[in-house]
Amino acid sequence: MNIIERDIELAIIGGGPAGLAAAIAAKQAGIKEPLIIERNEYIGGILGQCIHDGFGLEIFKKSLTGPEYLDIYDREAKKLGISYMLNSMVTELTPNKDLLVINRDGVHRLHAQAVILAMGCRERTRDSIGIPGTRPAGIFTAGTAQYFVNIRNYMVGTKIVVLGSGDIGLIMARRLTLEGAKVLAVVEKLPYPSGLPRNVSQCLDDYEIPLLLSHTIIEIKGKKRVTGVTVARVDHDFSLIPRTEIDISCDCLILSVGLIPENELSQKAGVLLDPITGGPVIDNKLQTTVEGIFAAGNVLHVHDIVDWVSIEASQAGKNAAEYIKTSKKKRAKKSAPIKIKTGKGIKYVLPQLIHTDQDTDMYLRVKEPTKDIYIEIVANGKCIKKVKQRIVHPSVMVRLFLASEQLPRQGELIFQLQEK
User: Fold this and answer.
1) For residue range 284-317, what is the model confidence (pLDDT) as tens digits?
2) Which of 310, 334, 358 is the last residue of a domain?
3) Considering just the CA atoms, what is the radius of gyration of the chain in Å?
């Protein structure tokens, strides 16, 4: 078998919003030919099937649909002459930044100076959460249902139950209602919705779709096709409460039960993963624990809006370009990073490592909804920053700025919630 070998400056794995933004930023920063490698036959990832609006509010200050948002980046990438490898699967990535890529032209071995991971994430399925019952037709993940309705023009059902209140599940509840289906209920095991508050309001409240909090599905019924589900209430430990079962007749079940960052390639390259986010451990250059490999977008952690993906990926593109143009001798002079830890009420913080010679943006999520709270940053036992938040919610990412002069030169930073 002939293997096509070539050297490249920058390989970007994934051509969704993160990959596009990273490639554009890298090109503008002086990389001659950043290469996007995309396994689908088209660029843009999931944006093409997201025909609802709400994109672009942070970057462009106006509400765009997914295809409109994608078009802006696609046009800019074409204007800059950025190269794509479509219908191409990366099957191997080594710590030395060698990639094995397979497509219709054959097998390619690419030797990159730097790599940006932008593979996005995948949806959890029924098998991931272990719902008992039969295995009939009519069970879809929210993203698959969205693809069938918006791209293939197929209706997935007429009487629908949605399990999970993630954003795509909420958006599909509204979309299917507009297409004439009856969404009987959105079932959520948490005591609060897991999607953005604006989506709960615009997708459920505006269409009078019931939201059953602290409930889950304990059985799926039907042989050839779904005929119904059994729903029951759960307590604060998610244990079933006896004699609270409700039978709901339906012909379609949509699962919106979380996303998993796609990091099989990251693991092959020896990248250390964070057990909470499911994505790589990074520093404030968005560089992983393997030198020269960067990460951005949903492969790093699941974002609530695409604008943050693009902003983060643009930074990764600039940093990768800087890495390529910096000599090995200068890279070796970099100081050891300080570690970031989570305290009371904080689920995770990114980046997990900080080099103190530069300003940095920090991203975090809280464990549960809270009002009138302070986010406190503690360095070696001393509070260095305190930010008041009127409302914090697990579905809404919090962004904080830390100036270099605020950072300790050694030790660690702890992020925690304080009532006063």
Assistant:
1) 999 999 999 999 999 999 999 999 999 999 999 9
2) 334
3) 23
Same domain? For 136 and 233 the reply is yes
Rounded to the nearest integer, the mean pLDDT of the chain is: 94
Distance, CA of 342 to CA of 355 (rounded, Å):
18
Full residue range of the structural domain in which residue 228 is found? 125-257
Contact 154, 284 (CB under 8 A): no
Look at residue 52 and tell me whether its pLDDT is greater than 70.
Answer: yes
Query: Who contacts 264 (Cβ-Cβ below 8 Å, separation ≥6)?
Result: none
Residues 285 and 318 in one domain: yes
Contacts of 385 (CB under 8 A, 6+ apart): 376, 377, 400, 402, 406
Cα four-point dihedral sign 223, 229, 232, 237: positive
Residue count of the chain, please give it. Answer: 420
Give pLDDT, residue 332: 64
Give residue for tokens 């019952």: 133
Q: Which residues contact 106 (CB under 8 A, 6 or more apart)?
A: 1, 2, 3, 4
Which among 6, 22, 3, 26 has a CA at the least distance from the CA of 14? Answer: 22
Angle at 90 between CA 85 and CA 96, to 5 degrees: 110
Q: Are residues 230 and 339 in the same domain?
A: no
HEC string of 64-123? ECHHHHHHHHHHHHHHHCCEEECCCEEEEECCCCEEEEEECCEEEEEEEEEEEECCCEEE
Extract the tokens encoding 278.
Answer: 């499911």
CATH number at residue 198: 3.50.50.60
In the structure encoding, which two tokens stand for residue 279, read together? 């994505």
Rounded to an integer, the average pLDDT of 10-21 is 98
- Which of 412, 403, 282, 288 shows the shortest CA–CA distance to 338? 412
* 119 and 262 share one domain: yes
Count of the separate structural domains present in the chain = 3
Residues 80 and 177 both lie in one domain: no
Which of these three, 257, 287, 313, is where a domain ends?
A: 257
Alpha helices in 132-257 (DSSP H): 142-150, 167-178, 197-199
pLDDT on residue 333: 64
Any alpha helices (H) in 81-206, and if so which ranges?
A: 126-129, 142-150, 167-178, 197-199
- Coil, helix or strand for 367? coil
* 156 & 231 share domain: yes
Q: Are residues 2 and 46 in the same domain?
A: yes
> Tokens standing for 42?
């088209």
Rounded distance between C-alpha atoms, residue 150 and residue 174, angstroms:
13
Nearest to 12 by CA among 35, 40, 31: 35
Q: Which residue has the tokens 């409700």?
A: 246
* For the chain, counts of helices (H) and of strands (E): 9, 25
